Amino acid sequence: MKGIILAGGSGTRLYPNTITLCKQLLPIYDKPMIYYPLSVLMLAGIREVLIISTPKDISRFQELFGDGNWLGMNIEYCVQNSPDGLAQGLILADSFVGNDDVAMILGDNVFYGQGFTPMLQQAKNEAKNGFATIFTYHMKNPQAFGVVEIDKDGKVLSLEEKPQNPKSNFVATGLYFYDNTAIDIAKSIKPSARGELEITDVNIEYLKQNRLKAQGLGRGFAWLDTGTHDNLLEAGNFVQTIELRQGYKIACIEEIAFNNGWIDKEMLLDRANILDKSGYGSYLRGLLK
Q1: Nucleotidyl transferase domain: from which residue to which, for each copy (predicted)?
Q2: Is the pLDDT of residue 249 over 80?
């Protein structure tokens, strides 16, 4: 399975912070925002990742990650010339994905909770069997999201993009696991009324084919969309609280790579030395003890 991170858009809701700086490079406490979605793909065991961003910002991600070798990964890059919808990311990734299954995640989403890795592995296995998996979350006010209607057995009944009168309080988060047919499905859908290729329409096609599964993220789980000033601050405060109290870092990509066996002790120490003047470098060095 290969992974896609959607890191485009203009980030207008975060102006003036994002007038000159890409939203996904803004800090969430002690690391760039894009570390968080990348860590999710890594926890799923995905080592080949495509970052899709704007012509203006793509070089900044290349400077941050390079080819990904220092993480034991292969990271590639693709330019999205205009923001024409999330499903366009699947089309742009066609040659990168090839014949593999694919996971796609939004570059401004933060996930945290117990038992997340087994959920990701399950979704990965479902893709091998021809299914798509969306991750759902209960929201008090779901109107601004893709709403998922689910029966008592967890079966998806319907999907609606930003409905005025939602049928449930469950929304689809920005994390999707697909089999390889998702690429052709994305190519077949038509732009919505707002002129975008909606990822909800891709998911609806899987639903029509009875190939859509929903993985609920329960009460003890945190899903944070960091697209506004308040949400960005909330996410930073959340990460700070967890890290200071527990002593573990959230979305530490070097730690995940090390635990996955993708990098060795020498590579981790090299990275710690680069970050030596920050608490982040000290944390990495502490992992070796």
Answers
A1: 2-240
A2: yes
